[in-house]
Structure formats: structure tokens, C-alpha cells
Amino acid sequence: MAANKKKPVEKWEPGTECIAKYEFQGTTLDDLPFKKGELIVIVQASKDPNWYSARNEAGETGMIPVNYVHKREGVKLQTMPWFHGKITRDEAEELLIPRTDGLFLVRESTNFPGDYTLCVVFQDKVEHYRVIYKDNKLTIDEEVYFENLTKLVEHYETDADGLCSRLVQPLPKKGTLNFSVDSDSFVKSGWAINRKDFTVGALIGRGNFGDVLEGTYMGRKVAIKQLKDNEKAAQMFLAEASVMTTLRHPNLVSLLGVALGNPLYILLEYMSKGNLVDYLRSRGRNVITKKHLLNFACDIASAMAYLEEKSLVHRDLAARNILISEDDVAKVSDFGLSREASLNQEGGKFPIKWTSPEALRKAQFSNKSDVWSFGILLWELYSYGRVPYPRVPLADVVQHVEKGYRMERPESCPEYVYNIMKQSWSADPVERPTFKTICKQLDSCKGSL
Ligand code: ADP
């Protein structure tokens, strides 16, 4: 181990994740060699502040020089309180009262789909500026270009730069919060991956934002989400990735990094057996044992208990969003809609058969609405991938459920699992169990198999 002069700025706790900035070959047997880009987890500090004992992904441990790596941190989302979505010109003018100079909002353009409109009050009138989406960037004057709306707003908050007024005061939208994310923050926090460092292979799925492909990164197989060319989707896509940067659990599909540029790529841990619905349908009762089913249920409940502990709500828990690894571990994926529990979002498309009555009616999403969805997921699991409420037309589901109708126990479902389903479907969210309790209940069932 060679001496190293540079002093670290802060002391890193055990479990801190780092990414290698350079290759390190090591000089003694005590050292842990690594390649550029490798993920290293701190095990503990040593007497020398420049060296830590650490572990690589293969589980090997050794000493690492601190200035060869940088700490990987969570990427923060920025809120866009001034973003009002699809409202008309007239609605914007009505909202912008009193007409204080510099009061502003941003809406989606009605005349030019895909573009936005910045509405600013000046001398008792509202000016509407078209924000053009061009070459993956946003601009008003075709001179200054911005990566996202937040950056555009920040620019005109400091300087009118040709507008009638500087942006002084945002008019916040009630009830909803929209987010933007700054792609630079992926670079700063150690999550950016170079496009030349991974290869892209065959198509394995199609998602909301674009195709999912298989690929290779640092010698291992990975799943790659590739984004269509669309600024709004890019923001949602990065928002999804940024939520993932703050989470780590053995039953959550883990994010490996993001390759910025056009197209945008998100690299994920590869789940070779695909999504749970396809898995259940293609293998069926003869291959999938009761033990498999209970293990899947425990895996999912354990990831959900972790999200619950962090007050994060998934909002779209369903078997189609569970992925299965080579060694049959179930992991929750698709954090696209997950948000802090306190931040409610209206107006989305809800997967009706999976969404709790209060979430459907009043957009009240909570960990308890996730518990409802988990009950539906358990039903899917024990019916080997059937679509919930098989004989009820989609249009009638809500009414049926509100009148107290609940699905029957699937044929091969043990009574103790059905009890958890029924509790999860309590009309009153308060009466539903927590994921922590569900986890314990399911775990204790393992003995009875
Ligand atoms: P979206 O959330 O954008 O709708 P999904 O995450 O549901 O997209 O992905 C669509 C499909 O791609 C999944 O159903 C699954 O079959 C496949 N897929 C997604 N992520 C992975 C992964 N990490 N490993 C293997 N297959 C995946």
C-alpha cells in the first residue's frame, strides 16, 4: 500500500457506494484492484484517512485509495410548482389575477402540441410566449436553449432577456406537483455512464417510454431502457432514474447508471426471467410450486416494506411490474410513478383493477393504497397470471368494488394468503395491514409449507 497525500473531505460510513474514477492495480496483496467505472462499497475506515477497506461487486475485499473513487449520491428532483399542464390561454389569464408584474406560469401549448407556453403578467396584461421544443432543447428566442423548463425559468428569473418582464413570482398549481431533473446532476453524483462503455443488443420488451434492450456493461449482461426522442418523456425518464438512485434493496431492480445524450439510456440490473405475468402464464401450475409463489410474495412484500419505511408510494404495483431474476428472486420495478407519500398527483392514467377506491376517487395515494394493489397482485400470483376480476367488465369494476364485491379465493390459494388479500382490500385504508405486518405474516407461513 503506497502513501497517498490527498486528504478526503469527509469520512465515509460503512456501506457508502463509490464509483472508480481511474483504474487501480494495487501494489500489495492487501489492496483491492479495480477498473474504472466499477462499483465499490466502503467496508470501514482505516487509520490512514486516505485509505479505506472496501468490497467490490464480486464480494472481494481489500484496501482502496480514496482519491481513485468518488462517492455516489442520490440525484434530487426539482419541483415545478409553476407548471400547470394542459390549460387554455383563457384559463391561464383567469388564474393570473391579480395582475402583478412578473407573476408567471407555464402551460402546455394548445396550438403546438409538444411545445409549452410561458405566461407572464406585465402592465395589467398577460403575455404568452411560445416555448419551442427543438433538437431536444427548449427555447423562446431561438438564441438561448435550455435542457428543461426549470432551467428556462431560472434563466428568465434572473434576467428578462427580451421578455416583457423578469419572472418574479410563480403562480403555484394547487394540489399537483410536477418535477424536472437536471441531467448534470447524474454526472455530479456519479451515475453517468459513457455510451462507449456498453453495447446494445436484442429487444426484450417494450415500455411506456421506449424499448427495453439487452446489452453488456463492464463484462455483465444488463437491461437497457432506450428513450424515444421527446423532452417531456426525457424528464419523466430521468425522474424515474433519479428516484432509483436513492434506493437500494435486494428486491428492488437496481439502477446501474444513465447514459445522457440522444437517445437517452437507463442501464438496469438484468432480470433474465422477465416480468411476473409472463413468467406465471408461460410456466403454469406444473412448474411453479407453492414454495415459489410464497417466496415471490415475501420478496415483493419485503421491497414494499422498505418503500413504506421511506414513505415512498409506488402507485403502480402489479405483477406486470415485478421482474424475476435468473435465480428466481422477484424484484419490484417501474418506479416511474413513485413519489413521496405526501406529494399527491392527479390526472394520471390509473390501472383501474389494481388501484384502491380512495386513490381512484380522490387521488389519495398512500402506502395503504399500495397495500390494496399488493392484494390484487397476490391474487394474480395465486391464479397464475390471470387478469383480475375475470368476469367483470372494466367499466363496472369500480362500482362493484364500492358496493363491497371482492374477488374469491383462487383455487390453489391457501386460506392464510387469502386472509391477507381480504385484509388488503378493506374499504377503510386504516384497516389494511402495513407491509411490515404482511411481511411477518407471509414469513411465518413459510414454515407451514
Ligand atoms: P415501462 O415502465 O417503461 O413501461 P417496463 O419497465 O415495464 O417499462 O419494461 C417493459 C418490459 O421490458 C418488461 O415487462 C420486461 O419484460 C422487460 N424488462 C424491463 N426491465 C427489465 C430488466 N431489468 N431485465 C429484464 N427485462 C426487463
What would your notes on this structure say?
This protein is an alpha+beta fold. The protein folds into four domains: 17-71, SH3 Domains (SH3 type barrels, Roll); 78-180, SH2 domain (SHC Adaptor Protein), CATH 3.30.505.10; 184-269, Phosphorylase Kinase, domain 1 (2-Layer Sandwich), CATH 3.30.200.20; 276-448, Orthogonal Bundle (Transferase(Phosphotransferase), domain 1). It has eleven helices and 22 strands. The chain has helices at 89-95, 149-158, 184-188, 231-245, 276-287, 290-309, 357-362, 367-382, 394-402, 415-424, 435-445, and strands spanning 17-20, 39-45, 51-56, 61-65, 69-71, 78-79, 103-108, 116-122, 125-134, 137-139, 145-146, 169-170, 179-180, 198-206, 211-217, 220-226, 255-259, 265-269, 312-313, 322-324, 330-332, 339-340. A six-stranded mixed sheet has the order 11-10-9-8-7-12. Strands 4-3-2-1-5 form a five-stranded antiparallel sheet, with no helix packed on it. A five-stranded antiparallel sheet has the order 14-15-16-18-17, covered by helices on one side. α6 (290-309) runs antiparallel to α8 (367-382), α6 runs antiparallel to α11 and α8 packs antiparallel against α10. The longest helix has 20 residues, at 290-309. It is globular and about 75 Å long. The termini are far apart. Mean pLDDT is 89; it is low at 340-348. The structure holds adenosine-5'-diphosphate. Residues 204-209, 212, 223, 253, 268-271, 274-275, 321, 323, 333-334, 336 line the site of adenosine-5'-diphosphate.
